[in-house]
């Protein structure tokens, strides 16, 4: 599930009081608001200052807890965020954190290669769809892990790299995803060469040259696609936002079909697959989708998980990023 980036706005905004950034020595003696008054004040402030255009938050419930008003803020899409307000209405806090050491995830002591592949339907030629954001460190991580597998299996699979229907990493990501979409669409034989270079250092200019991409052709396609899906226009006008993030609707229907929540999301034969991100684990996950696995599935692949982000480093098993993603949850 996705969690609205409203929470981040709260963290940044409520370092100050609702009435300004100066302290109020009389707050201790201020009038206590009723629950209804506190609800109305918080709801007005959130909608006027924090929500994206066209979005509206409502406060479903207000109760007293630990000397504060606890508010269930409904920010849409089934997302509820518990926030807190002082009883005089001068301060609003986004979330309470339990001050105890978090329990270690079970995967902390488990090697990537011990991850069992998700049970997926069988096909003679598996369809492998990977949804990422171009600058999400966990998206780039799985891309680096899956490319050797795609190269090894070749035409035995139908591999499709797609993008999430929203972007969390600024204008550079929107532009990069338009460019990559067009390279893959119109200059597909050069796409993996470009992508491997880009994942190494994030230098798209150098990689366009290295992969011998026809940049004029790419730009014409990117401009046309941008206008068709109103990527730049909607981002600039804050239209069709996912919480606080601009949309990228090129693969909107596919995102909705598979209920893609974030980057990365791996779909094999129409079923979301949970896999570790090292090449060996990804080979195992994809080969589980064959009716009759080809000999290529027996090829030994690296068991080292690529490090998150750009670069060629690897990371220790159980480091934690093998299960992390970029998402609004």
UniProtKB/TrEMBL annotation:
Gene3D superfamilies in UniProt: Glutaredoxin
Region entry Disordered, spans: 304-329
Alphabetical UniProt keywords: Signal
PROSITE patterns: PROKAR_LIPOPROTEIN
InterPro entries assigned: Thioredoxin-like_sf
Amino acid composition bias (Low complexity), ranges on this chain: 316-329
UniProt keyword Transferase, yes or no: no
Signal peptide location: 1-27
Origin: domain of life: Bacteria
Name assigned to this protein: Thioredoxin-like fold domain-containing protein
Record organism: Candidatus Falkowbacteria bacterium CG10_big_fil_rev_8_21_14_0_10_39_9
């Amino acid at each position: 599930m996705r969690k609205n980036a409203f929470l981040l706005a709260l963290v940044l905004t409520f370092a100050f009081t609702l009435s300004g950034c100066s302290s109020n020595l009389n707050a201790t003696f201020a009038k206590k608001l009723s629950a209804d008054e506190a609800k109305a004040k918080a709801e007005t402030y959130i909608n006027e200052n924090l929500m994206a255009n066209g979005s509206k938050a409502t406060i479903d419930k207000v109760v007293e807890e630990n000397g504060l008003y606890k508010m269930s803020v409904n920010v849409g899409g089934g997302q509820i965020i518990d926030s807190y307000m002082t009883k005089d209405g001068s301060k609003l806090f986004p979330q309470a954190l339990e001050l105890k050491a978090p329990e270690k995830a079970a995967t902390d002591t488990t090697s990537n290669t011990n991850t069992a592949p998700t049970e997926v339907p069988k096909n003679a030629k598996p369809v492998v769809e990977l949804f990422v954001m171009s600058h999400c460190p966990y998206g780039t991580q799985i891309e680096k892990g899956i490319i050797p597998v795609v190269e090894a299996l070749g035409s035995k699979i139908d591999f499709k790299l797609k993008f999430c229907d929203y972007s969390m990493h600024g204008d550079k990501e929107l532009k990069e995803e338009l460019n990559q979409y067009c390279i893959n669409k119109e200059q597909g034989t050069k796409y993996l060469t470009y992508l491997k270079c880009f994942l190494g250092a994030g230098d798209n200019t150098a990689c366009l040259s290295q992969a011998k991409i026809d940049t004029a052709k790419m730009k014409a396609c990117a401009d046309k696609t941008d206008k068709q899906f109103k990527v730049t226009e909607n981002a600039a006008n804050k239209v069709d936002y996912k919480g606080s993030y601009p949309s990228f609707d090129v693969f909107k229907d596919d995102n909705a079909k598979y209920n893609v929540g974030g980057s990365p999301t791996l779909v094999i034969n129409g079923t979301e697959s949970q896999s570790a991100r090292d090449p060996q684990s990804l080979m195992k996950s994809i080969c589980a989708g064959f009716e009759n696995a080809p000999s290529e599935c027996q090829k030994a692949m690296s068991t080292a998980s690529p490090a998150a982000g750009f670069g060629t480093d690897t990371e220790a098993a159980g480091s934690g990023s093998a299960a992390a993603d970029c998402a609004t949850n």
